[in-house]
Structures are given as structure tokens and as C-alpha cells.
Amino acid sequence: MKTTRCASWTIGLASTVMIGGCSDAAGPGPGAAMVQIAAGPSTVRQGDVASFTASVTVDGVTSVATIDWSVEPPAAGRIETDGRFVAYEPGVAKIVAEAQGARAERDVSISDRGLAGGTFTVVGRGPIFDRFTSDLWVNGTVAYTGTWSARDGPAGLQGGNIIYVWDISSPSSPRLTDSITVNAGTVNDVKIREDGRLAALSHEDAGDLLNGITLLDLTDPLHPTVITRFTDSMHPGVHNLWIDGDFVYAAVDGSNANGGLRVIDASDPTAPSIVASFYGGDTSSNFGQFLHDVYVRDGLAFLSHWDPGLIILDVGNGIAGGSPSGPIEVGRVRTAGGDTHNAWYWPASGYVFVGEEDFSTPGKLHVVDARVPSNPVEVATFTVPSTTPHNVWLDEAEEVLYVGWYEAGVYAIDVSGELLGDLDRQGRVVATALYDGSGTCRGGGTCSWAPQLQGGNVWVADVNSGLWALSLDR
User: Fold this and answer.
1) pTM of this structure
2) Fewest C-beta atoms under 10 Å: which of 48, 208, 362, 452?
């Protein structure tokens, strides 16, 4: 009696076919499947995405079969059901394709991404210690920083009711030139219109009927003047905002229809008016449904709506007939973990970088593929252990994302190429900066709120210490 066994053959470069079922040493028996990895590289760089394809034949006839992909060892990378593979660890990985009891393998050599060695250098700073610093906006050689909550500092208990104005024409020595005091407990956000002549700041915690926005005249950018304070239908408070042309998009606090988006026509800044509202949360719930932030670009508004997720509106793009006065929802996605905090849309790639502000999980930076706005899909994440991201700024020319990561400081992350999987495992960190030493956030030290690239420097608003200028050396 002849003993049968499972045999293997090599077909093509580094593609080994293992036959499921029994066969003899001469080859597979009748009806046995054969799998061959037909295409895919033998070398790949860490973090890059490569595509593999495989074919299945039975008795020499191509079979329509689902390929089950895997990678060995699992820590070497991630492979999708469509055969796209992203490499995590330098070394040698084995790509495995299985179908109908048969298996094929291909060894892939993974090289280092080669980004080690980047550094941040402190160029200058503008210290603020009597109040906590919130957001910033830099326009040319002038920077504006807000203030947050209440701080017991050198001058006693001080609230977040001031916007500071800085001359940064000499980055090594930012100079405070002016400040504006408003009736607020927090000036959480400040934005400048593209022409540099109009600014809007948000205010919260000023009392039921006084919250909203203040518009500033920047004819003299170093010494702004108040045009008007506008509070209509924004009583819960405005957390963040965006200016696009003649319109201010305000994220109003509140986990019900009293909150959500307000679109404000500021074409006459002395007499602004609300032209549209939108609320994307569940009106039957009063928890976790609020709109936290809004980002507008190319006629699309990206709403960071906390647990409902990232919501995309047509406000003039044309894909759904929307306009600033008639926004129309075109798509939404709930990123893993919820707590959708902020977003940055990159039209050239179609990616949206979405922050998740969660101090217990910890929070992640999520990447959403929005090339089809009606069907946004989460494709990647970046995690820093034990802390959560806050605001981001993308250098689109250099494909580097700057993230303020609270007590972990500022991260510069390479976001070039196709993004997939766990970006923090792909050697994409260009540099990090604990510019004020080890941080515990409001307990002291580094506590990064927001970065912004301007004039070759990365300007950072730090909650504890004010304004910083950093340079990135790669």
C-alpha cells in the first residue's frame, strides 16, 4: 500500500504552494487547489503600502475563491483583505495567501523608513504665566493667543477673558504689543480671515445671554479694535470657529438643538446675522452629542461632532447643492472611540486628520479617507501612550503633520504616501519636542495646545507657559 502525504512545490519567485488535502510526491491529487502569489514586491520600506495578488487553480483551471491574507510574524505589519500590506517592523516578513485548504508564501524584506534623527530647537518664546493659554493664530509676523478657564497665578485668580497680540517679526524674541479683554470665562479660539483684515474670537462661560463671538478689525494687526460682539442664538457658548470668506462658522456648545453649527454672514461685520444652523446629534440624548469644532475648505465643512463623529457638509462645493446659507450633509463616519474633537482636511490626498480627545483610553489621531465624501472611511490611527492629541497643523508641501499632544509635547509626523494601519508603528515620527521639560499639563511643564507653521517656524500655544517658536531640523 502507498502512503500519501501533503506536499509542497515552489512556483515562481519565493511563492511556495502548499496543497491542502492528500497528494503524493509527484504533485497534487485530482481536485486539489493550488495557490500562487502572482504579484507583489520582495522589498518594501517601513510604513509604505504594497499590494499583493494571488490566484487559485483547481486541476489547472482558475478558480473564483476568496483569498485569506495574513502576515508572519503578526507584528511585522498589517495586511488587508484585498492584499494591501503595510510594513511595521524592519526585517523579514512572510506574506501568506490561503484558499480552499491551500497556502502560498512570499518573503518580503522590510527596510527602515529612515527618519530617525530629526530634532526640534527652541527659537524663542513669549511667556504668559498669569493665565492659561488656549488657541493661537499666526498671520504673517503677528500672532494672536487666547486664554482659557481660570488660573491662580502671580496676579491672583485670573480668568480666560483676554486675547494677546504678539509681534513675532523677530522669532527669537516675540514681543507683546496689545491685548483685548472681553466678557468671557474662556476665549477658546481665534481665527483670521484670509485677507488678514478680520478676526473672530469665541467666548464661553460669560453667562446665558452673553456668549457668542467678537469680531475684530485688523487694519492695524498689532493693535486690533473691536467691531462688534454677536451673541444671537449662541447662548450656550461658542467653543471653536472658522472664517471662510464672508462667513463665520461657529461651533455652539450644547448636546441638543440649542447647540450645533451656526453660519454667520459677516459681510458687514458691524451687523452680522445668522443665515443657517445645523445639528447632527441625537436629539433624544443629552450626552456626548455636542459640536466641538468646525473646519471649512473647498466648499466643505468638516464638523467634529464628538460621539456622532465626523460630519461632512456641502456649503458651496457643489456635490450636493449646498451653500453657506443652506448646508447639506453629504456623509459622516464615527471614528473608533468617538470623542471627535477636531479635523484637518487635505484635499490633495483626500485624507482628514481627526483628533480624539479622550484622556482615559488614551485618545488617538485618526485618519479618514474622504475621497468619496458621501462614504468617508477610517483607514489609520496614531497613538501616543498615556495621553491624548489636541490640535493639528499640516505642512502640506512637506507632508508633515504637527500635533500638539498635551504633556507629550509637539509631534512631527510623516504623512506621505498611502496611509494605512497603526502609523505610530511605522517609523513615521520625524521629531518630538518637550520644549518646557517634562510636562504634567496644568501641574506644570510642557502642555501643548496648538501648533502652527509660519515663516519656517512652528509656533506653539502652550497651556502653562504661553507662546513658543520651534524650528524643525530633519
Assistant:
1) 0.93
2) 208
